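Hello,

Following up on my earlier ticket. Below are the three sequence lines again, exactly as submitted.
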Amino acid sequence: MGIVSSGFFGRGRRDDPALPPGQHLTDGFPVLSAGPTPRITPEEWEFTITTETGQVHRWSWTEFLALQQDDVSRDIHCVTSWSKLGTSWRGVSLDTLFESVESDCEFTMAHSYGGYTTNVPLDDLLDGKAWIAHEFDGEALEPAHGGPARLLVPHLYFWKSAKWVRGLEMLRQDEPGFWESNGYHMYGDPWREERYW
Amino acid sequence: MRTGWRVAEVIGVTPETRTARTLRLRLPGLTGHRAGQHVDVRLTAPDGYTAVRSYSVASALPGDEFDLTVEELADGEVSPYLVHQVAVGDQLEVRGPVGGWFVWDPADPSPVQLIAGGSGVVPLMAMLRAHAAADPASPGAAAPFRLLYSVRAPDAVYYGGELDDLARSPLADVSVVYTRQAPAGSGRPPRRLDAATLVESVLPAADNPAVFVCGATAFVESVADWLVQAGHSPDRIKTERYGGTGTRP
Amino acid sequence: MTDNLDDLDYLDGNAAAGPLSEFFAIDVVSARGRCASCGRIDALATARLYPNSHGLLLRCPGCAEILMRLVDTGDSVCLDLHGLSFIELRRG
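Thanks for your patience. The regenerated structure is below:
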């Protein structure tokens, strides 16, 4: 550890039982910008699940909105150490999307408009743990935050909740996504501080 | 160039405005630096949390001392500490000075146009100071220097007295555009910098000046576009965005 | 937020000089690099740097593809260069 700057504590860091280790609360919703924001209209948006046999399950924006919608409130934790408690989302549960999908794979890769990828085990997407969210705080999800729709996997670090998501690819073996291939943790549990491998 | 984190000592603090101050640091082993470079500053909290930010060097001193001018950002994490808490005798971890691109070279005889938006004046001040201190025999010492400084209000101006002195000297032309509040009695209302004002204030494209632009990202984008439209070669325009979405000029 | 200002959330590649100084003995941001995607050749200092992310990303100012990706985990720092097909240094 370097020289400790007396009187420097970082922004708003304090112990809170709702916060995983090393996290601090934010009232805002920081945008981590890794590149130009993709501008995807609902008309061109689609979501797919591609199985190991090459079968593609496809939903247009209209079909997606016709599915059962869940309203969920969850804490989210960004690996850059901010957390936001009780965020409100509306979207479609992955359980709903996977109802018609036949696959023996245990792993998935989320793909986004703009090229971003992140890997998530299938078990972490099912049983009410993950959604494709299109509203935040009662409003359409802004492009800067991943709109029209993003993956929402709130029990993992937020980089797993891929912005501008366009599909899931079923994988037999776990593979690293965009940040995972350069040092980020393959799983990313904030309570075990799985930031990096 | 030395790499890695080293420990510098704060040997002086000077307020510039209500929200900005200049820290003079001593970094043992440093033997000067190039005008326009920056340093990364790393702060470590007692629990091991660290935060790193980059700050431009404002000075052009030959030895192991240099100045950083830091503007306090409203939602900043590091800048409030540097502006309000750090005191003479404190130690800071720094990396640099680094960056060999956005620098003025005294061996370059080209005329120089500097364009600053707000606190973007800091690395440009280093260039003005390096030019003023340049060996008269160096090709750049006699190069025409001109600064266009876009700033919110008179009380937001950095290095005001020194810029006034420079403006009266043969070393540089200085023009200031006040965007929100003009000086009392100036007779000129505040105005935003626009393409026409820019073109009439800067060295003409025909002189093929080396142009350095520093400010918020939106400011730099607009200014660079206007310069190119006015015939300046993109190859002659070097930019340093200091981040923040800010406002356009 | 309905404007495009979020698309201005980048700096110049020059600002990556500090972190990259851990890898290169020279000031690599002044070197020219070739984008592996579109072939553009320019100083790395002119690339778009996205520092406000999970790591440091340098993107080509021409095609926006990634030139460099740097992840600092504290114990290690990883530099991914697969977006650059060469780096050229000028001597002297």
